[in-house]
Protein 1
Amino acid sequence: MAKNDQRQPGLYRRALLTGLWQENPTFRLLIGMCPPLAVTTAVKPALTMGLSVIFVLVCSNLVVSLMRNLLKPHLRIIMFTLTIATFVTICDLYLKAFQPQMSEILGAYVPLIIVNCLIIFRAEACASKCGLVVSLLDAVGMGSGFTIALCVLAGVRELLATGRIFELQVMPAGFVPWLAMQMPVGAFVTLGLLLGLANVVTRKEPD
Amino acid sequence: MSKVKHFIQQSWLLLASSFCFGLLIAITNAGLSPRIVQNEINKRNRMVGALLPEARNFIALDAPIEIESLQGKKQKVEVYKAVSEANECVGWSFNAAGPGFADQIVLVVAVDANFEKIASFDVLSSSETPGFGDQIKYEYYRSQFKGAPAGQLKLVSIGEPKIIDSQIVGITGATVSSGAVVDILNTFLGGIKAQMKEKGLIGDGKE
């Protein structure tokens, strides 16, 4: 299958780069929208969530790609879920052991990665059809695109809600924090504005 | 026989994967759980050490105290005796939990040696809204409890927070979370105090 992957020129590059912008899960495909709305109150938890998603996505894509020829069509979803749940549990245990503060902040949203449709979507659309290398690159690309989107959202919200980013004061002393940016409304408004901006950037001129 | 064969043909991958993934999780859990447990103990010790700075050691009572929780269920609570370097009792500490605005709030509570006054409390875990409900962790709210009577507390919306008495001034915009803390303390302080008096651990019949 790896040989088949190589037959199409630029396949590896496309697999890696598509998720960053052209098919960015958050800004272009609008999938896996729970973490962008729930864990973007600050950049640190957003980054941790993004890295967790990359880990789960890479591991699940690799395992699904390895077993793709053995998958029965009617059992594939349960196999994907089983694979994803395993790696999410490992990730959750790791965070509890080595990043206990972050694990507390993220709370139930780490276990909820199991039902993040980005991961199951990539297992179905890519890993179950492609070789190991393409699946790996796709996971890295999609996961990175997702992480960047989370960090951008979190950056805007943290900056406006606290005047700081990564605990560094950015806004001038007279800045009045917008507490609403830490609330769900802040997530929806910021996401809406960023989606609008992404649409403006990618808008094509009519023929 | 053909049914069994069909079952195995269809599900062998699922069964084998479940076994392998289960084993992987078990190994990870076995490797990380001592660290996770230690993290929880460290966090509690750090908090309770800050609440009762003169304490050098915390000794758990021989048997847990049974109280009636906020939900009306019987609940066992581990109570720790805080002893100084001179091996004198300088206070008591215990974990108290109850429903908050978003999820369960778990507090670490410390009281004086006679169980007459609250030494202080800290929030062990909570998922209260950032910027609003999570202000229960902040010093300006918690300081109202330092020296307050270890009896029935009352939440008020208007008052002077600097006056230490049984009236606790709620946080504007976080009435539910402030009230939850007061309810948790009322339930646990009352229940534990009564049981400890019965057992002769505090009061006139002190051992």
Protein 2
Amino acid sequence: MSQHVLQFKEETFRDDFVYSNSRWAIDRFPFPFDKDSYMYAVNLEPHTTGRAGSIYEKSFDVDEHYVAEMRERALTLLEDPLRCQSLPHMTLAGWDLLELIMTHKARDYPELFELHRDGLQWRWVNKPLGIEQSFIFGDEATLPYGPMEYITRQSQGDWCVLDQRDANLWMDAGMVTTQADWSLDFDIGMNFFEWHAPVPLAHELGIFQRALKFLLAIPQGAPARRLNWTMTVHPRHDTSPENYPKWGPDRTTVTAENVAELMYLRVELQSFWRLPRSNALVFPIRCYLIQLNELVSHPKWAKRFHRVLRDLPKELAEYKGFERNRALMVQWLSQFDDGALTSPGGGPN
Amino acid sequence: MSAEHLKIAVRVTEVQPVNALITRFSLEALDGSDLPVFSGGSHVVVEFGSCMNPYSLMGHPFNTRSYSISVRRDDAGRGGSRYLHEHVKVGDTGLIGHPVNLFSLNLRAHKHLFIAGGIGITPFIAQMAQLSQPGQRATAPFELHYCAQSADLAAYADRLKGLYAGRVQTYFDNENQPLNLVSLLQGQALGTHLYVCGPSGMIAWVRTTAAQLGWPSEFVHFEHFSAPQPGKPFTVELATSGRSIEVSERQSFLEALEAAGVNPPYLCRGGACGQCETRVLACDGVIVHRDHWLSEEEHQSGQKIMPCVSRVNGRSITIER
């Protein structure tokens, strides 16, 4: 298989919304439905890497949206610095995270990133963003930001750094600018059950008890992952409660004519990594967006997505925030669904 | 999650008798690569010969060249520690799991108060090294109170007193130097976290005393690995597959399951991590619980067992596997 050469795109995630997926990006999109219906499950699996070309090929996927997404993050932070917070006891975990990301990116994308280490004297080169930084590992004064903020300004997706204590996980640090309507500033300091309190149905199913037990036991060197999903109007990253007035009203602009253009399936690749020095857990939430028009270029996805949306329990559609426009999407997608059987698994064919 | 696929092949690079009971082993990766960084308080499951036991890592947590463990010889046990003492030499090879921390520092602490009994000193050696790492911003102060039978058996006491002058206090039974626990705990400022590692009796004493003095349980941390003990053979009925397995005298329940191809997950094999917890459907005999994971009520109920350290005194047990 020939190596795909990344072409970073000029894109925006607000105002004029200039965004699209290349054929390459559509074909590798993490379509999250392995059957024709959806319900919560503890769908955690080992984060094994390697399948060439897929978003799982590398530990931390870098794609054609990388540079644009990092510019969008910087804009969001400029308007609201509280999207990035780290409680004082989480600095060590920040260094763990910086090391994890730098070593993996330098190993996985040698043409884009370089890490040169001489004891604690490190030099980091990020070619796509034009960054070259020498610093002393462990010495915050040698970086322009704290270690977590420094490296997550250069890494796609949101990052929650969870302290582990009292047989629970605590949202004690994070970089969250790409969120599906939740707020780090609100959740900071909360434990696993507290920040999941608003999720419907899953508590009754015992999902969170089982998921927590699994997460607490994730060992070093054996990360896990799961997919989550929702719908967004426009390719907007910052769908935060803080900015609800800016994006909430978008839902009222969807019509039968523009639904395929305005509605995006938003899939989160969530992975979970034990951090070595701090024993904290880092939880990257990587967001992939695909327009309905792009999604239906794969007939299997079009059929299946029609059935999933049509049959989804109302509570879930309301929690995910698209009940209002569900009928429009189902109506539009129905033209692609001939009722034929779909093959198992989430792949396009 | 099973730690099975995460094993690291290691070579013994040093065997150092520390005192009459304790020997220290240094381990390096067989292929010469770096070992994982870890956090103070971590252990690894060490596999030499046929024995797999958890040992606390006592080297510097950020030293990736080699790991050190201290092994106390247990003559009453099934022979794991004796095997290490008597048979393992420099150059021998074995396997270790990745580091797992069930005894982590609470990094929100305003102060760390460590109480060690005997070989329970080992996790604190790594934790104190981590807290003393230069360049670490605003690390909370710590204090170690180290109890041992005698000065001769207080491994590493002199070295620690030299490294951490004024922060290490020793108490030797044979010199009649009891630790005044009540006065020690009453003198602590709010925000102090208490950590205890040592024999079961000592852990129980420290936890009970702290509770009586009003310490919230979130501020009291302890680690205690049990070792599986030999016992009479018994039969295991697997309800899910309908199979029957025999556990021999010197085998642990978990080892018998593994030998039959049933692999419950584990992180410690010492009754502390909770991963191998198994539901009991029936038992013809009495369960001898040796773990520190299940509650007293769960032990009484007879509905759960930790096969890594516990077994059955009787004929058979039926489990949900």
